[in-house]
């Protein structure tokens, strides 16, 4: 399972009810921030998440509405939150802007109190452990080095309790070893192997996050069968020409991608102040019914059944 908290859901300028782009993705012990628009610090506090373990930032691209909040956030994290290390991932162009912001503005005369690592993204795997993978893929927007991200749990084999009980496998380390793929020897000398008590492999949860983007025909395979797709919806089709001109999507075009990729849930964000939420939702749902329009501080849980909005602060 992944959890996504929307800290800011507006496009290039904030509105009364929507801040600039930022999101938190939770998975087990990990906390990832995706983008960090101006005002993100306050949204973190309002969300109740706090700053603990917030040591990985993923940047979709280098436009100011997606990175300008990093200055204040990094200053707070490094001075007041006892953060030892912060890893910031982005394309080369994006990291150059971030470097200027952090080391020429925030810390111009001294080394920052915490270790700050600027890690250049390349398409492909960013990190992995025994439970999940995080990968980056290129997207087309205005300017170079724009990326989207795929969070995906690794396939797993469910433990079949009924079979284990029938074979006399006791509760305790024996079951844990079998889940980890190791055979165990019972007290009566019988050897139980993982295949005896594990079911067929089941796919893990897949979550795709795309920031600003103007082209989608090259994203169908990447988004294929995602349990949730988060993507921008800056315009509606009424201004589709403007969307194309500025490298953005309409609600309809985002919904067409969701339908073509056979995703379970579509969540739209990055809304312009010119539209009412209901208009964006109505346009998308006419094409792809299982669509949400995210609001600031929305909290979604993403499982194999799709995404559900669990609360809004």
The CATH topology label of the largest domain is Metallo-beta-lactamase, Chain A
The residue ranges in which pLDDT falls below 50 over 5 or more consecutive positions are none
Query: What's the overall average pLDDT, rounded?
Result: 93
Rg result: 22 Å
Coarse structural class? alpha/beta
> Order of strands across the widest beta sheet?
6-5-4-3-2-1-16-17
Span of the ends, CA to CA: 21 Å
Helical content (DSSP H or I, runs of 4+)? 25-40%
Q: Can you identify the CATH superfamily of the largest domain?
A: Ribonuclease Z/Hydroxyacylglutathione hydrolase-like
CATH class of the largest domain: Alpha Beta
Question: What's the number of domains?
Answer: 2
Number of helices: 11
Give the SSE string. Answer: EEEHEHHEHEEEEHHEEHEHEHHEHEEE
Our estimate of the beta-strand percent is 25-35%
Query: So, CATH architecture of the largest domain?
Result: 4-Layer Sandwich
Shape: globular
Largest sheet properties: 8 strands, mixed
What is the count of β-strands?
A: 17
Write the layout of secondary structure elements.
Elements: E1 2-8, E2 22-27, E3 30-36, H1 40-47, E4 56-58, H2 64-67, H3 70-80, E5 85-90, H4 92-106, E6 115-120, E7 124-128, E8 132-138, E9 147-153, H5 161-167, H6 173-179, E10 184-185, E11 191-192, H7 194-197, E12 206-210, H8 220-223, E13 228-232, H9 240-245, H10 251-261, E14 266-269, H11 277-285, E15 291-293, E16 298-303, E17 306-312
Parallel strand pairs: 3-4, 4-5, 5-6, 12-13, 13-14, 14-15
Antiparallel strand pairs: 1-2, 1-16, 2-3, 7-8, 8-9, 9-12, 10-11, 16-17
